[in-house]
Amino acid sequence: MTKLSSLLDQVDSGTMLLPEFQRGYVWNRDQVRGLMRSLYRGYPVGALLIWETEPSAFDVRGPAAPHGGVKQLLLDGQQRITTLYGVARGKPPAFFEGDANAFTGLRFNLDTEVFEFYAPSKMKDDPLWIDVTGVFDKGLAPHIARLNADPATTANFATYVDRINRLQSIRDRDFHAEKITGAEMTIDHVVDIFNKVNSGGTKLSKGDLALAKICADWPQARTQLRQRLTTWQDAGYNFTLDWLLRNVNAVATGRAQFDQLDSVASADFAKALDQATEYVGGFLDLAAGRLGLDHDRVLMGRYAISVISRMQHLFGGLGDAATQNRILYWYIHAGLWGRFTGSTETVLARDYEIGQTHGIDGLIDELERWRGGNLRVGPHDFNAFGMGSRFYPLLYLMTRVLRARDLGNGIELKKQMLGHLSALQVHHIFPKAQLYERGYSRGEVNSVSNFCFLTTASNLAISSRRPQEYLPEIERDHPGALASQWIPQDPQLWRLDRYSDFLKERQRLLADAANEFLDGLRAASTTGTHETLPRITVADTASDDDELTAVRALCDELVARGMATPNMDVEIVDPTTGQAVAVAEAFWEQGLQVGQGQPVVLELDPDPVGMTRMEELGFNVFTSVDALRNFAQRRGQEASGEGVDDPVTPSEDRPAEAGPTADDMPDEKAIRAQFGNAMRDVYVRSKKEAGYTASGFLGMLQRHGALETARRLLAAPHISDGYTALYEVGRLDLTVENVVLQPEFESLFSDEERETAQRRLAEFDFTPKR
Predict the structure, then answer these.
(1) Extended strands (E) in 8-122
(2) Which of 71, 479, 539, 683 could form a disulfide with 423 if both were Cys (CB 3.0 to 4.6 A apart)?
(3) Do 428 and 496 contact (CB within 8 A), yes or no?
(4) Model's pTM, two decimal places?
(5) Dist. CA 169–CA 181, nearest whole Å
(6) Buried b or exposed e, range 57-69, using 16+ CB within 10 angstroms
(7) Segments making up each domain of the chain, as ranges
(8) Which residues fall within 8 angstroms of residue 110, CB to CB, at 6 or more apart?
(9) What is the dihedral of CA 293, 240, 329, 537, to 10 degrees?
């Protein structure tokens, strides 16, 4: 057993560190409050797992102690120790990577014994709200003096002093630490142990594993990679570490599997990193200058870039103008058709080989064979909806390259000085609000073929006017401007009642223009691509859609609470087939907190088939802002202990979605938690054992929680569709009614509710099972 104060001293001295393969700090404020509440109340907070090793064994994060000797490397416990160090010291530890706002400013209320983060309007000048860091740092005296000076605290002075003492005593709390040692321990052994103890928490990607081994020989590798990513981020492109490693691997080994980097010496890796950086930068300049793809939103087909990096390495660059055009042709089609969204490594390996032996023409031929001989854009492809679809970047590209003109002033968009009020915005040709009033779906309203790009000033001027009002004025004042944006010329199609016909005609015009441009690239023509396009600003479109405004507000709210920043308006791809299954309003690919829990999707208007497939892939899908907000709030309550007499302490080895366990909580709360787990088990087992995917039931659990969902189903006048489906396959043991009748849940339901459950099962001649 080791006291917390001793553990923190070890962090200060540089004898307790993190192995370099660990990801950064991912906890949010709710988890911080939950940990402190558990410690204050004396609840168990889990053991630590530590690797005792020589400092030369492999790279660590943070400055190690200057003297030699054994170091303590945290394998399990990073989040807890980082939190406690940050709260106690008022600053993050030296090995910290993350958002320090998650643990700074914590306060404790001497009257209610709750932990909250500082809110001036609520806590300023209130002696009952004390600074937790101040208690650890300066002791009891300042707080006792403050209480003495306030007559309002006199009656409970002894109680308050006792509570301050109890808070400060957390630093003397004993932690149990399991230790692994042994000279035979390698990075592979340790990473395997790490993944096993974190089976429910933050998992390492293949790229993390590869980088862990690289860092053993070249400690600066992670820093160097991050510097490149930061440079591109500053230029408007957001890439991941795994993606950059793909490019380095392509250059260094010509292979797709990360384990190929095991045999690459550190000096060779460093050289390959420099070369890959140069190749990526060269291609980004080409894509921006020749296609106008100059920011993150429109950069399609990212994995295709590693193939192009490999080609540059093999053939000494991007080649002449004709070769560059064919590279761009291949790149655009690879992005449009999701070449690398399925079995990424398998496809990359094949394309590396083909590129090496047959060059860019071989890659084009392979892509054509893969597509069944069809590399043509069809009108229906522009029926894709949202800025997350694959055909949004193509529309943007065409606008930049093919001399599209602004509808407000008739000037070519690429020739304008795009400053204040002239940054490009997405404009809905038919206003969204008017289409919704006529009953069109979100997908129809936000079809890519209802989009065009305008300067901000022009977008504001047109506002929400009807096309039949403003399009004639544009054609009169700026002849040819409509045609340059592929807007049908027939005035009859500009009426709201002809919207569907308008979309079909514009989709035809867009497809014809796209194919003509792409055919020119393949034929090695340089028409329309000699000129280097200027970089521009693309502004967010002011939303007149209340639901989308609510989505953005929710995402901002979750980020402020310490959740991850989602991708907005993003295409969700089936990793098996590479097909798009949805375009989500928001997508947390690595969970609401990075590396913790299932991917989370917010899709306001899901396709039933796509919804089912996302659930099969293990995604947590929400179809309303309120449902996701309630889910996040329940997670926060479980993590912080709000409304729970004996909360579960957040830990690295149990994700928040799993819910509390009975051993951690008193009887009533334990029963509720157990019931929640049983209800989630109904969904999982129904799908796995009975072949029934209860999407509606899952949605109810997300919106209302387990107990309220059960009560709503029992209160319904008729049995649910799910009940009928389970009856037909002889699995009424998987119904909510059967769960409700389990003896351990008797206290949660009224006699009437239990009688309803019993009656329904009796009507179908079913004997409840445990």
Answers:
(1) 16-19, 48-53, 60-61, 71-76, 106-109, 115-117
(2) 539
(3) no
(4) 0.71
(5) 31
(6) bbbbbeebeeeee
(7) 2-180, 198-370, 379-522, 546-763
(8) 127, 128, 129, 130, 147, 156, 159, 160, 163, 164
(9) 0
